[in-house]
Amino acid sequence: MKERALTRPHADAARQLNLSSALLALSVLTDSGVEHYRGSFQNRVMYVPLGVAALTLGAGVFGMAQPRLRRHAARDSIYAVAAATGAAGFLFHAYNISKRPGGMSWLNLFYAAPIGAPIALTLAGLLGKGAEVARGHSIGRLAAAVSAVGLAGTAAEAALMHFRGAYHNPAMALPVSVPPVAATLLGAAVCAPGPRIGRLARWWLKFTALLGFAGVGFHAYGVSRNMGGWRNWSQNVLNGPPLPAPPSFTGLAIAGLAALRLMDEEAHTDRGVRR
Amino acid sequence: MTDRYPGYDVLAKRDSPSWNEQTRQVIDERLAVRADSHRFFTDEEWPTIVAVCARIIPQPQQPDQPVPLAAMVDLKLFENSGDGYRDSRLPCLREAWRRALRALDAESHKAGRVRFHQLPVAGQDDLLQAVQDGRSNDPAWGDMPPPVFFSKRLLHDIVSAYYSHPRAWNEIGFGGPAAPRGYVRMDFDRHDPWEAAEARPGLEEQARRHNARIR
Questions:
Q1: Is A40 in CB contact (< 8 Å) with chain B?
Q2: Residue of B16, B183, B184 to mutate, interface with A, max A Cβ within 10 Å
Q3: Domain limits, chain B
Q4: Which of A236, A241, A249, B74 is buried most deeply by CB count within 10 Å?
Q5: What pLDDT, in 10s, does the model give residues B148-157?
Q6: pLDDT > 80? residue B18
Q7: Distance between CA A225 and CA A165 in Å, rounded?
């Protein structure tokens, strides 16, 4: 990858990747905070994602706010640590599931440590890393591919958890139907870039981003439907649908939108260079 | 007896998210049972059931505020609230108890020409033991096998009355009714913050502090 001068839209898109990473990190920070508190921090390691997600969130905010668009060594390494921590968390969760009676059974996938959750931190790290590398290199297509895979994976986790919840509310079908379409369109835009597929992908990504916000509202409603409702919050926030989970869709959709902008800018400047 | 859940009072949860109006109502009714109230047992039968309860579950640990066992058994019989099942060798709830108290008094009359509650404590224990072992055979029992009455009616009704009372819950660290707040941490040896802490040796003060904060 060769160094390139940055245009204004390109810089905005890079900052938008920082934003997406920060949103994912916020989701991981609050979700692992609540769920690991529920697990009574039985293992000291359970504190680690809280610290790393908080750092990642800070790095994202810093990256968005920084007036001069430069790669930053501290952010760079925080994002690398986040990606590695997520991968280690995945192994820890897989170990937690496998050591329970029954091993890799549906029951344990439903009720033991959620297998997919730590990957969100890896995605936050990768997208943050992308935001840094984009300050000088063409990574639009790679970032789009990562977002598409992330959206598909997150939809798979929602499918597992909403299946556990028996899809008792028709709205529970939304996060398993909308993001996969967005991911597919984004993937198509990576393989065969073009204005039409790009426009289509943007619409579905925006819908997905909106859905992530709406999901918090739906989950808050889910909490209120548990016995005792919000007055019994100390039980129901833990027992009901996780409030911090849906915004990870928003984070990934914003990353997809940023990646499409990067791809456009890169194509534009490439044409300019040829001209 | 040592206090295994020091400072724990399940009633501290009364006005917290742990209980709702329905729960408060049920427990208030239970706490309102007066120790000497009897509407099913006659004045004649009353001292007998009081003495039986005192032998089945002596309450030296709460001398000032014993759980009103006999009155609670009486309430169950007055309301005739069965369990939804019964050993077919026993007559129905009320008839079984009436007959058994008559038989106990008859047996103690044979043994010492006194009523059951007038027997010395050791004598009461001997007689109850005889009932449990099938050695009591007064005609007052009728076709009801005394050992079956002992295990399926007498023990069942008295012990469930005791452990339905909040003071018994304090003693065993039971969280009480889980309505609406239930439990979230369901794994082995995991506890929700609103559960009683057991005083492990050396950690009594820690448990007391935790239990004082439970709501």
A1: yes
A2: B184
A3: 1-19+177-215, 20-172
A4: A249
A5: 999 999 999 9
A6: yes
A7: 13
